[in-house]
């Protein structure tokens, strides 16, 4: 094993004060989690009605500086419904990035729409506004208020940029390009709660934003997600669709379109409320870990990825950049077989059988990052 790899393994184990096994990312329950959970059981409000779920929605809307929030069962559902409320329909296309977690593209496919992949920026690892603009200049055609793809003849009904590991992509530029072309933006901020760009929170840039509170994210609801919007109409519609599209009535069951049962249960919201209170503590702890890593990796030939300019990072998952695929594989092998859990960035979406035939641009940056980026243990420490 390379000397730097052995040194890194020892260092990471020291950081967490454990010689045996260091997981990639664990949840931490430092606050009112048990108290709020017990409260849902004592009051019997564990399911889709309850005070915590309403409170959580209000707090997320406030935290993200958006008009309204709809809490749902997971981040994938938030994206799926978000795409539907901005008007994505069967047969449409949705522009996104191939360097993402599969949920982003699955949410598009659940709406019977097809993903189209544009490249990412090297520094942010999120959608490149230049790649987006080039793609639209080559293939986009405005017809009335809508944008069509000249190659496929299909409508481009939305754009889904993603903030990789909580690093903000150039979301302001992406939104501005999409505005010019009449394309709504669904911001996949699943990994980015607590990140911001020039003081503006992740999730508040697009027509709608989606968050995840899965067990591996910066805060968790066990499982959960949220859709936010600066336009209350979108969030209201999402809330209604995820509550079986039930028309309010004192006793009648009237559902006037195809809805879903995707509302976040109160028991999950109780956990989420307690976790949200801890968000800043978790973030500060992860920031300290990042600073320690920074000092250490400066003494090695492994490059720690840094936060892009102007943005504020939630430090969700810290990552390093290896020299090439061979080095990356050697690093993954050395760490994982010696009790330090590390993971490569995702395989690009067009390598998966479901998305092989999707249109895409050159993907030069995405392919470079696919071969070189590895996440290292990033949990908050007490
Ligand atoms: C986690 C994640 C999701 C989906 O969230 P779930 O709550 O797991 O459904 C979507 N997009 C990205 C980029 C994610 O990391």
Task: Give the strand line-up of the largest sheet.
Answer: 1-11-10-7
Identify the CATH architecture of the largest domain.
Answer: 3-Layer(aba) Sandwich
> What is the gyration radius calculated from CA atoms?
21 Å
Class based on secondary structure composition and strand pairing: alpha+beta
Number of helices: 11
The small-molecule ligands in this entry are: pyridoxal-5'-phosphate
Under CATH, the topology of the largest domain can be stated as Aspartate Aminotransferase, domain 2
Q: How many domains make up the coordinates?
A: 2
Helix content: 25-40%
CATH H level of the largest domain: which superfamily? Type I PLP-dependent aspartate aminotransferase-like (Major domain)
Name the beta content range.
15-25%
Order of helices and strands: HHHEHEHEHEEEHEEEEEHHEEEHEHE
Name of the CATH class of the largest domain? Alpha Beta
Shape, per Cα inertia axes:
globular
Would you identify the regions where 5 or more consecutive residues have pLDDT less than 50?
none
Please outline the major beta sheet: 4 strands, mixed
Distance between the termini: 32 Å
């Amino acid at each position: 094993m390379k000397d730097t790899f052995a040194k890194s393994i020892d260092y990471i184990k020291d950081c967490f004060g454990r010689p045996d096994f260091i997981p990639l990312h664990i949840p931490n329950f430092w606050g009112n989690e048990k108290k709020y959970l017990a409260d849902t059981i004592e009051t019997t409000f564990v399911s889709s009605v309850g005070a915590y779920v309403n409170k959580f929605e209000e707090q997320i809307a406030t935290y993200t500086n958006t008009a309204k929030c709809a809490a749902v069962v997971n981040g994938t559902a938030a994206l799926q419904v978000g795409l539907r409320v901005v008007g994505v329909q069967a047969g449409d296309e949705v522009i996104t990035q191939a360097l993402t977690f599969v949920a982003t593209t699955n949410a598009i496919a659940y709406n019977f729409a097809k993903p189209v992949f544009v490249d990412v920026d090297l520094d942010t690892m999120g959608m490149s506004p230049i790649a987006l603009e080039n793609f639209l200049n080559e293939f986009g055609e405005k017809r009335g208020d809508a944008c069509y793809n000249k190659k496929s003849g299909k409508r481009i009904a939305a754009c889904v940029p993603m903030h990789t590991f909580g690093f903000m992509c150039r979301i302001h530029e992406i939104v501005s390009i999409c505005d010019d072309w009449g394309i709504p933006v669904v911001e996949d901020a699943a990994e980015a709660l607590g990140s911001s760009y020039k003081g503006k929170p992740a999730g508040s840039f697009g027509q709608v934003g989606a968050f995840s509170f899965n067990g591996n994210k910066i805060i968790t609801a066990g499982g959960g997600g949220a859709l936010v919007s600066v336009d209350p109409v979108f969030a209201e519609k999402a809330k209604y669709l995820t509550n079986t599209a039930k028309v309010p009535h004192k006793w009648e069951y009237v559902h006037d379109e195809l809805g879903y049962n995707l509302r976040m249960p109160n028991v999950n919201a109780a956990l989420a409320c307690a976790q949200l209170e801890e968000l800043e503590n978790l973030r500060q702890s992860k920031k300290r870990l990042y600073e320690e890593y920074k000092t250490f990796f400066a003494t090695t030939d492994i490059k720690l990825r840094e936060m892009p300019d102007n943005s504020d990072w939630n430090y969700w998952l810290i990552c390093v950049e290896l020299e090439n695929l061979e080095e990356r594989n050697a690093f993954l092998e050395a760490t994982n077989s010696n009790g330090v859990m590390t993971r490569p960035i995702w395989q690009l979406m067009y390598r998966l059988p479901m998305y092989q035939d999707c249109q895409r641009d050159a993907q030069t940056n995405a392919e470079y990052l696919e071969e070189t980026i590895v996440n290292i243990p990033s949990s908050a420490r007490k």
